[in-house]
Amino acid sequence: MYDFNFHKPATLDAALETFESSDDGQFMAGGQTMIPVMKQRLAMPSDVIDLGAIDDLNGISAGNGLVSIGAMTPHAAVAASGTVQDAIPALAELAGRIGDPHVRNRGTIGGSIANSDPAADYPAAVLGLKAIVRTNRREVAADDFFTDLFETALDEGELIIAVDFPIADAAAYEKFENPASRFALVGVMVCRTGSDVRVAVTGAGPCAFRVTEMEQALAANFNPEALKGISIGADDLNSDIHASAEYRAHLVGVMAGRAVGRMA
């Protein structure tokens, strides 16, 4: 790990000011990705700005058909929240299946989606539930947020404040996980609100994506049988030591069918 200056501001304004005055500053949420990367000397920020003391970024509330989750809210808090369990139980279940207890108590929703790890769970929820990502500058629709491998629509110095999740009529998340890391080899979030159906996939490609053909089929007939015959192309999917692109393509259909089966 290279030398760096460490800051732990107590307010959002102070954090942003510290970033602007740094040569090469970087915000840190839970540090579950950033610290290992720095230890391997793959990153060398001049300043690390820990957001953990900013109370305004932590918390869960519900109202006006939304569940709002502060960016610094740990996964464990989302999983244990009665508000989330009552309004969007699939979201609480997803959070409870992330990593291990250490990761769930240190990792945060804002850090997870800002990192846009291809195997992270939250991107499927953000995209599937049609969430709005609120930053210190604007609001970003879920469909516009995840852009590529470890890349999002966030600009330099832009910070996630909270994520607003619309309350769906029904939702379910199914994933085929790596048994060691519990990362998703493939995870699928299916959400239904009225006649609108969204099918969001994580783990399979460079970043989370929707399967519009499945969405259209389920909008016409919300039943696992409606997904039969729909194949996912493997050309743009991930292939590694854990699973081939072709296997991941197959798993998308299997996980989507299981999710729909729980909702139908």
What features would you describe in this structure?
This protein is 33% helix and 25% strand. The N and C termini lie far apart (51 Å). The strands form four sheets. Strands 4-5-10-6-7 form a five-stranded antiparallel β-sheet. The protein has a four-stranded antiparallel β-sheet with strand order 11-12-13-14, with helices on both faces. A three-stranded parallel β-sheet has the order 1-3-2, covered by helices on one side. The chain folds into three domains: 5-40, no CATH class; 57-166, Uridine Diphospho-n-acetylenolpyruvylglucosamine Reductase, domain 3 (2-Layer Sandwich); 170-263, Enolase-like, domain 1 (2-Layer Sandwich). It has 264 residues and is α+β, with helices and mostly antiparallel strands. The chain has helices at 12-21, 34-39, 75-80, 82-87, 89-96, 101-106, 109-115, 122-128, 142-145, 212-220, 245-263; strands spanning 5-7, 25-28, 47-50, 60-63, 66-70, 132-135, 139-141, 146-148, 151-152, 160-166, 170-177, 184-193, 196-202, 209-210. It contains eleven helices and 14 strands. Strand 12 (184-193) and strand 13 (196-202) form a beta hairpin. The mean pLDDT is 97. The chain is globular and about 55 Å long.
